[in-house]
């Protein structure tokens, strides 16, 4: 019997995915002759649904956006997804949470097959009851709220009967949790700012992974 379930975002929460995503974006931009972006601008792509950001930033229609996604994935699938670095203390944190009888799972806007490969590559699979992500077509299940709904259904959980919590580094993580009637803890060591997380309504914000060992159990309640 678990004492509650925690859903983790992936990029910017479990691992620093900046290198692989930026390399894939730069490949996409060069291949499709899209307007050049600064590194700071490219970092803002990390976290929110990629198709929405690409469509907005480059003013693309649906068909052109899908072509851009395919071009991005042409680099990301064989190489970029392995250009991830685990945040310091993450193994220790996940092991400690698991030892407290918490069920852990991933809920990410990244396509699910990519997320599963990354978790396996980082040797984190034993910590998680499931890895749930966006649909491969990047259209039918992309928004964080939809991914969380999907994850809860797959895990057989209800916000009305189970202590649940979301952890993430961007406002879409916090807002997606709220849409599912869940509280969310923000992490400031990822790609979002403390101001962004506070505005979205994070119940607490931590500055390093190991802080989650005590913060998450304290915030898990119906």
From TrEMBL:
Keywords on record = Hydrolase
Note the coiled coil stretches, chain numbering: none
Origin, by domain of life? Bacteria
GO MF, one term, reads: protein tyrosine kinase activity
Q: Give Gene Ontology CC terms.
A: cytosol
According to its UniProt entry, this protein's organism is Latilactobacillus sakei subsp. sakei (strain 23K)
**Record InterPro entries:** HAD-like_hydrolase_sf (IPR050155), HAD-like_sf (IPR036412), HAD_2 (IPR041492), HAD_sf (IPR023214), PGP-like_dom2 (IPR023198)
In Swiss-Prot or TrEMBL terms, this protein is called: Hydrolase, haloacid dehalogenase family
């Amino acid at each position: 019997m678990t004492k509650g379930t925690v859903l983790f975002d992936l990029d910017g929460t479990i691992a620093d995915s900046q290198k692989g995503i930026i390399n894939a974006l730069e490949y996409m931009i060069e291949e499709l002759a899209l307007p050049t972006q600064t590194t700071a601008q490219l970092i803002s792509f990390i976290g929110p649904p990629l198709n929405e950001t690409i469509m907005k930033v480059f003013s693309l229609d649906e068909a052109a956006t899908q072509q851009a996604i395919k071009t991005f994935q042409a680099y990301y699938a064989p190489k970029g997804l392995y250009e991830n670095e685990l945040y310091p203390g993450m193994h220790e944190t996940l092991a400690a949470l698991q030892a407290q009888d918490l069920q852990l799972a991933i809920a990410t806007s990244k396509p699910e097959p990519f997320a599963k490969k990354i978790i396996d590559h980082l040797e984190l699979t034993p910590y998680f009851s499931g890895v749930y992500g966006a649909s491969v077509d990047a259209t039918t299940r992309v928004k964080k709220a939809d991914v969380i709904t999907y994850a809860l259904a797959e895990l057989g959980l209800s916000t009305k009967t189970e202590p649940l919590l979301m952890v993430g580094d961007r406002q879409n993580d916090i807002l997606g949790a709220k849409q599912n009637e869940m509280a969310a803890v923000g992490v400031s060591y990822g790609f979002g700012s403390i101001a962004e997380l506070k505005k979205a309504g994070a119940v607490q914000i931590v500055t390093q992974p190991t802080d989650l060992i005590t913060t998450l159990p304290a915030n898990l309640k119906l």
